[in-house]
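Q: What would this complex look like in 3D?
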Amino acid sequence: MKSEDVFRFSVKAVSGYPARTALMILAMAIGVASVVLLTALGEGARQYVINEFASLGTNLLVVLPGRSETTGGPPPLLGQTPRDLTLEDALALKRSANIRAVAPITVGSAPVSWRQRDREVTVLGSTAELFDIRHLSMALGRFISAGDPSQGSAESVLGYKLKRELFGNQSALGEWIRIGDRRFRVVGVLAQKGQSLGLDMGDVVIVPVVSAQSLFNTSALFRVLAEAKGRDAIARAKTAVQDIVRARHEGEDDITVITQDAVLATFDKIFKALTLGVGGIAAISLGVAGILIMNVMLIAVSQRTTEIGLLKAVGGQENQILSLFLAEAAILALVGAAVGLLLALGGVWAAARVFPNFPVPVPFWALGAATGVSLFTGLIFGVLPARRAAKLDPVQALSRR
Amino acid sequence: MIHLAGIERVFQVGDEAVHALSHVNLSVAAGEHIAIMGPSGSGKSTLLNIIGLLDRPDKGSYQLDDVDTTELSDQEQAEVRSHKIGFIFQFFHLVPRLTAAENVELPLMLAGMDPEERKTRVQGALKALGLSERARHRPDQLSGGQRQRVAIARATVMEPHIILADEPTGNLDRASGHEVVQILEDLNEKGIAIIMVTHDPDLGRRAARRIQMVDGQISEDTGVATNL
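A: Here is my prediction, written as structure tokens for the whole assembly.
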């Protein structure tokens, strides 16, 4: 028997029972669509988080005061330390050949006012290098000037949202604002960039680190951001940071260095596992669809007993009947997969419409895997019914009406 | 052509072994016209199925064209069925979703024949039975007589030299039944052997050779073909 005949005969058989065919295709389509959609969502979440991290800066090291304890008692996440991380510590890091830029950061909250308007916002004290390290961009004016970091100045840079709330449509550049009990001149406005891992960069005011320290009356830093010279230099930069600070802190390891890479890799792993898990759950529905195919094919075999008997009587061989029924299962599975892919693409399109900022990439492997798995389940679960059909005793099959 | 010797067929019904056929010897020459008659359960259909290689005897030998069929594999038997034997059933057994032409085409398709040649053969077979107009009709759009004619076209399209008919008129009205018998007799004229199981004594009388079966045995056989 020619394979195009097998195909034509099976297509006729499939289209000859539209209700049953539609149900099977629906089951298969739901399975395939959920696999593709859920993996796309998982992949989207992964890319979203990675993008968020990348917007923090690249090859980043975060230096925190205090040390994460791994032994003893019920510890706080970060151990307490008598020694603060100071601006001098931060500037000392610059001496390492593996570190390109260092941005000390002091964070506090203070009322910011211009004329009658008053807002309580996050005040970020840092240096000019923060601009490059955090990949910031300006909407207007310039960033705080790169003078001697240990000298304060009365410059301030407003977040986009803060500028709008304080100044509305009026020009902010050159205006004097009051932060706490000090006056600062606005030299620039940050471009709208949106959320960046919790800290809304639109709702901050950035001032030189020393000015912020005197504003909050502290000499301690919240943390230090350091950018390594390159990807390979991250590990060496980390050691360098630890060595330098240890030397300055009388031999005590009292800081924690987090590399962005490590965090990224962890998130990457978590989300990959999540995607796989979710995809696996969706794959169960493919399995269910496979069992449905088996059921319906078994019913088809018993409904078409006389047809099978007849095929045998007119010279049909067992393997021919086997291939006819397998082809039928495969066609159902493939059409179901195709419909499922269309459904999934529709869902992705809709998701992209509803959440324009959230990427929903359909991973290529998911397309292939979903189609492959549905064909595989169709064939696997089609084997039993097809074998039953092939083994049917023609005399008994034909004795029925 | 057909030589059955010492054929036994036993069915297990519950604890009881039912001898559907016991010790049947039968020889059929090419081009014979045979009616197998007998009461229900006398083994007529079983005999027909064994001749048609749909069933295997438990004992005995069956030679078809000097080949011992009992030694053939299922696949080889299917090939023999495909080329040498045509079946006609009481309930027609047409595939309901296929048109008349497609039903007739089935044996050709299973035999792997070229689509071009299939087409001419199917057209020829349908035309011979006066069904050219009905080629695109599905079975439920055909009358009983037409359906049986489609079935006959299907049985003859591979040009077999044996046609086995199991109560071919059993489900037809008199007129259509008569028509079908006429067609079968015409086929017999062309040299095709017809072996027909029937209840109808009138029909049986029209056959050149009548075999009467009782309790799985041949009780009467008019005109045994000699020296076959």
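A: To summarize the key features: Chain B has a mean pLDDT of 90. Chain B is about 35% helix and 30% strand.
Q: Very helpful, thank you.
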